Amino acid sequence: MAKTIMVQGTTSSAGKSFLCAALCRIFRQDGYSVAPFKSQNMALNSFITNEGLEMGRAQVMQAEAAGIEPSVRMNPILLKPTGDSRSQVIVNGRVYGDFTAREYFAMKQSLVPDIKNAFFSLAAENDIVVIEGAGSPAEINLKHEDLVNMGMAAMAGAPVLLCGNIDPGGVFASLYGTVKLLDEADQQRIRGLIVNKFRGDVTILEPGLRMLEELTGRPVVGVVPYMRLDLDDEDSLSERFSQKAGSGAVDIAVIRLPHISNFTDFNPLQRMDEVSLRYVETPGQFGHPDLVILPGTKNTMGDLAWLRSVGLEEPIRRHAESGGAVVGVCGGYQMLGRHLSDPQGVETGGEAEGVGLLPCGTVFASGKTRTRTEGTVTHAEGIFAALKGASFTGYEIHMGKTSFEHPAFSLLDGERPDGLSCGNVFGTYVHGLFEKAEFVSRFVGCLLAAKGLAPAALAEDWNEYKEKQYDALASGVREALDMEKIYQILEKTDELPV
Question: What is the pLDDT of residue 497?
Fold first, then answer.
């Protein structure tokens, strides 16, 4: 049976996901078979496994760091918010149902067997399982029903490393307060404290670290520096949304929808020197982009109404009518059509007119498409004409079926023909479209050519690039943490409360 270690945080932005990924890579480098695990994840960035099952993208990142194929067992419960207090619940990779927060809270204990089955099957196959918590263990109103923080630590018999983000300030108070709000048994599960995202001279911090150790009775096992790495982010806390646009010749405006999902699709674009990519929420931010992207969303009809209410639909339409490039991905593709219908109330119910830039319509239904896909571009027009013949890989996750009106041309061909190309506008259901070096290079080359500029250099293979990022993450975290102490914590699980 595997050794276990769990990373919990004082807040949702403490950096748990990246620390878990770093530990996965470090343990792998040290010769161990390792797997990540998070019993319950709330995220709109998701992924489709080879089996056609859906899981949170943070655990995909951690699996990649561990050097193994992502498995839905690493994230048995995924909550995908569709509104402020309602989520689609995914269990073992399949849609379980839509629930309000109160409804889910009342039934979630029935999912404990699914969590245990997933965790113990991973533990039987690996030397180490690295477990990620969610939010904070000090959410004392939820403690008696917890299955993702100390409740999960108890199920797994896992020692806990508690991390706090120093970047916004208050890290000593958050670490101390979190420990002291826990009951004695849960306090005993915490075997080390980590200060994360530190900028500056650590020697100045040391007096506070010693005081924290005295006050909590727990050792500080490391101060991790703030590292600028290019890895997949968690949804609403992503720093990418607030980053200033770069200096690339091609200006790409991604509409930041309220329920934006799988914005990791655009990370390969963002890292190219020729691209300046920014996220837009208001007409005042729209500017004069070379390309507008309508991304995926967990609430297509609701976000389409938002697009109109804030005044962004008209600038997008004018941009397209003047010959500008527009791309819609998944929910964004559905919005670009002429009409949407939700007769079963899968989203908000009713009907809505689309933006009208593509001759198609979408009808929502309860069945969910989950599949990996690959193929080539069979038809492209206007600015994107040179994309014809480019190969792609990716995956689909969507509710609803889109039907073409005539004249219409399928954009992508392969095992599952997909998408629609019409002038300088195209839509596709394929996530991960820009990860293949050939495709993203030709795509950016089309935008450069439209401005009379030289083609883009061939992009680095995305997987090779991510491998370098995982190694850099592991190197920085290994240097910052007392790994000898962490290995000791892994071994001394007999001291934990039963």
Answer: 74
Active site residue 20: no
Q: What is 250-450's CATH superfamily?
A: Class I glutamine amidotransferase (GATase) domain (3.40.50.880)
Query: Which CATH superfamily groups domain 3-231+467-495?
Result: P-loop containing nucleotide triphosphate hydrolases (3.40.50.300)
List where CATH 3.40.50.880 sits in the chain.
250-450
| CATH 3.40.50.300 location in the chain | 3-231+467-495
pLDDT value of residue 34: 98
List the structure tokens of 490: 């892994």
Reply yes or no on whether 330 is catalytic. yes
User: From the candidates 259, 319, 398, 431, which is the catalytic residue?
Assistant: 431
**Residue 416 — very low, low, confident or very high, per pLDDT cuts 50/70/90?**
low
Q: Which tens digits make up the pLDDT trace of 325-356?
A: 999 999 999 999 999 999 888 887 889 999 99
Percentage of the chain surpassing pLDDT 70? Answer: 94
Its pTM stands at 0.88
Per-residue pLDDT for 43 more than 80?
yes
pLDDT of residue 141: 83
Annotated catalytic residue within 20, 24, 163, 330: 330
